[in-house]
């Protein structure tokens, strides 16, 4: 038991260190400040942002959504089996009808619409926030770019802080559950394997978060605090896993965890499709290069999903 505990403590520090290093690189180095970049430097940063968008897209579909669907389905199966043993009068047809319903997809969609509602409510209460401003022109490269209108209306910069907060919260939920899974592993080999899989995609995702905070103009102190808070989530989940590893889980705890992860996946998909991808794909320059970068980021996350 002592070697296993030592390995899990090592994984805890590895998760924290990697998150802080990868997340703070875009914040601490001025090279990643796209507002001050020009020419080739700006194009490289734009393509790097597209790659991070592909990473977010892959993380949303191949990791968060996939894990949420699997967890919700397994927990509902357990719930149905418990009800079947307790109430013998229920028929098999009723049980199969209950499990055939796409509960996982419903919960993820509820997370999507929850953020949609909160953002619509915020914009309704602050009616002037949805109007264009000079900040919008600066964020998208200054004056009127020929052909930019063909990509539709640009996202309002006033939504940036809210969507950045949603992004951080959804990733925080996911990070807690990742750490919890590592902390609950029964053997050293399983712990190391899962931890390496988490580290492989977590570094890229957190780097993308840091880059995203820089691109929307977040202050350095708030950005560093956000990365620090996000970095503590996986160790927190791992510590919780260590705390409950010796005892049986309470009834309903697994289902509640799966539901929360499903809601987090829905919020993450909302930010990915309505904030990250539109911002990175808005400009008309080098569309095939941008597509290649997004596809590369997604493909890498899909490859890591073989082990994660």
TrEMBL record:
Keyword presence, Membrane: yes
Subcellular localization: Membrane
Topology of the protein relative to the lipid bilayer: Multi-pass membrane protein
InterPro entries in the cross-refs: ZIP (IPR003689)
Superkingdom of the organism of origin: Eukaryota
UniProt keyword annotations, A-Z: Membrane, Transmembrane, Transmembrane helix
Membrane-traversing stretches: 12-32, 44-64, 106-123, 222-243, 255-276, 288-307
Protein name: Zinc transporter ZIP2 isoform X2
Upper classification of the organism: Eukaryota, Metazoa, Chordata, Craniata, Vertebrata
């Amino acid at each position: 038991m002592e070697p296993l505990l030592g390995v899990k403590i090592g994984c805890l520090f590895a998760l924290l260190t990697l998150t802080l290093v990868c997340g703070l690189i875009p914040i601490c180095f001025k090279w990643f400040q796209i507002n001050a970049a020009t020419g080739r430097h700006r194009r490289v940063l734009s393509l790097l942002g597209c790659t991070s968008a592909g990473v977010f897209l892959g993380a949303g579909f191949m990791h968060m959504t996939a894990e949420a669907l699997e967890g919700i389905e397994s927990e509902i199966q357990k719930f149905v089996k418990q009800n079947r043993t307790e109430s013998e009068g229920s028929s098999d047809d009723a049980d199969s009808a209950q499990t055939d319903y796409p509960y996982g997809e419903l919960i993820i969609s509820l997370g999507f619409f929850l953020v949609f509602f909160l953002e619509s409510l915020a914009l309704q209460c602050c009616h002037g926030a949805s109007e264009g401003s000079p900040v919008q022109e600066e964020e998208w490269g200054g004056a009127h770019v020929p052909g930019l209108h063909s990509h539709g209306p640009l996202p309002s910069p006033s939504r940036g802080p809210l969507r950045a907060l949603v992004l951080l919260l959804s990733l925080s939920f996911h990070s807690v559950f990742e750490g919890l899974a590592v902390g609950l592993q029964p053997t050293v080999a399983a712990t190391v394997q899962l931890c390496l899989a988490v580290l492989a995609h977590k570094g890229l995702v957190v780097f993308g978060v840091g880059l995203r905070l820089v691109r929307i103009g977040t202050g350095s102190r708030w950005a560093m605090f956000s990365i620090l808070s996000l970095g503590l989530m996986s160790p927190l989940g791992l510590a919780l896993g260590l705390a409950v590893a010796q005892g049986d889980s309470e009834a309903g705890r697994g289902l509640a965890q799966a539901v929360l992860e499903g809601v987090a996946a829905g919020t993450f998909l909302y930010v990915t499709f309505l904030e990250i991808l539109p911002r990175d794909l808005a400009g008309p320059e080098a569309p095939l290069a941008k597509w290649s970068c997004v596809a590369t980021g997604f493909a890498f996350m899909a490859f890591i999903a073989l082990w994660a």
